[in-house]
């Protein structure tokens, strides 16, 4: 997906393309059960230091938590993906049968950028669940606003939707073809797949998901043009 870094009317636009290898939407992860009494700060620090495991907690629909440890290599692959919070993980806890789970929260150490702790939620595949889906915009080359030097401002990086686990998409694409400078794409205007709806918002009914604004360069150029036109008009009056 190309993103506009800058531009001006009649000038060249600077685009870049980001390509990342996406992990599979479903992966099987083997975890090791841990005693809750050994889930403290010192034990967790020792676990991360002496092994390639990260402490984790799995919570089911009834609120019961299971403490375990996950392989940090698998978590790093998921963490680098935009769809990390909607990747289905088939968790195999010791000798139990695998069950589906989703990542709810990843705690990262800000200095070393290492994963410190992970929270997962176990769910029923037959019941709708709330997941966060990344938002991407497409067809920027067909947008009149971008051609004029406008910049795409992505207000929502992700959207929380309600759907079944079998219908979870990796991304939600927003088509900005035909959008001009000053136009907005609202949350309720997004094209969602069937059997999917936006989760209720806590404080408002709707909000802009994406807008096309004006760059500072284009605003300065327009201001210079107005000042030049005003100066020419003033010179014409003086000559008369």
Automatic annotation (TrEMBL):
Residues 33-120 form the Large ribosomal subunit protein bL25 L25 domain. InterPro entries: Rbsml_bL25/Gln-tRNA_synth_N, Ribosomal_bL25/Gln-tRNA_synth, Ribosomal_bL25_b-dom, Ribosomal_bL25_C, Ribosomal_bL25_long, Ribosomal_L25_dom, Ribosomal_uL5_bac-type. One of its GO terms (molecular function) is 5S rRNA binding. GO terms for biological process: translation. Keywords: Ribonucleoprotein, Ribosomal protein, RNA-binding, rRNA-binding. Residues 129-200 form the Large ribosomal subunit protein bL25 beta domain. The keyword Ribonucleoprotein applies. The keyword RNA-binding applies. One of its GO terms (cellular component) is cytosolic large ribosomal subunit. It comes from the Eukaryota. NCBIfam families: bL25_bact_ctc (TIGR00731). HAMAP family: Ribosomal_bL25_CTC. PANTHER family: RIBOSOMAL PROTEIN L25/GLN-TRNA SYNTHETASE, ANTI-CODON-BINDING DOMAIN-CONTAINING PROTEIN (PTHR33284), RIBOSOMAL PROTEIN L25_GLN-TRNA SYNTHETASE, ANTI-CODON-BINDING DOMAIN-CONTAINING PROTEIN (PTHR33284:SF1). This is 50S ribosomal protein L25.
């Amino acid at each position: 997906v190309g993103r506009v870094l800058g531009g001006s009317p009649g000038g060249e636009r600077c685009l870049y393309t980001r390509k990342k290898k996406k992990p599979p939407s479903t992966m099987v992860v083997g975890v090791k059960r841990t005693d809750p009494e050994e889930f403290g700060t010192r034990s967790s620090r020792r676990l991360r230091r002496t092994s390639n495991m990260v402490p984790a907690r799995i919570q089911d629909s009834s609120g019961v938590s299971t403490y375990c440890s996950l392989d940090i290599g698998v978590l790093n692959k998921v963490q680098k993906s935009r769809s990390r919070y909607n990747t289905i993980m088939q968790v195999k806890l010791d000798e139990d049968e695998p069950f589906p789970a989703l990542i709810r929260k990843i705690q990262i150490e800000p200095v070393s950028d290492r994963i410190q702790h992970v929270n997962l939620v176990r769910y029923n595949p037959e019941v709708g669940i709330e997941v966060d889906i990344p938002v991407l915009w497409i067809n920027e080359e067909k947008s009149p606003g971008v051609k004029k030097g406008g910049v795409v401002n992505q207000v929502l990086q992700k959207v929380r939707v309600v759907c079944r686990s079998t219908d979870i998409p990796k991304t939600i694409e927003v088509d900005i073809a035909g959008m001009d400078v000053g136009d907005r794409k609202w949350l309720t205007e997004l094209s969602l797949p069937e059997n999917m709806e936006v989760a209720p918002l806590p404080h408002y009914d709707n909000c802009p998901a994406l807008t096309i604004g004006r760059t500072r360069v284009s605003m300065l150029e327009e201001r210079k043009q107005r000042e030049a036109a005003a100066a020419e008009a003033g010179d014409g009056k003086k000559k008369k």
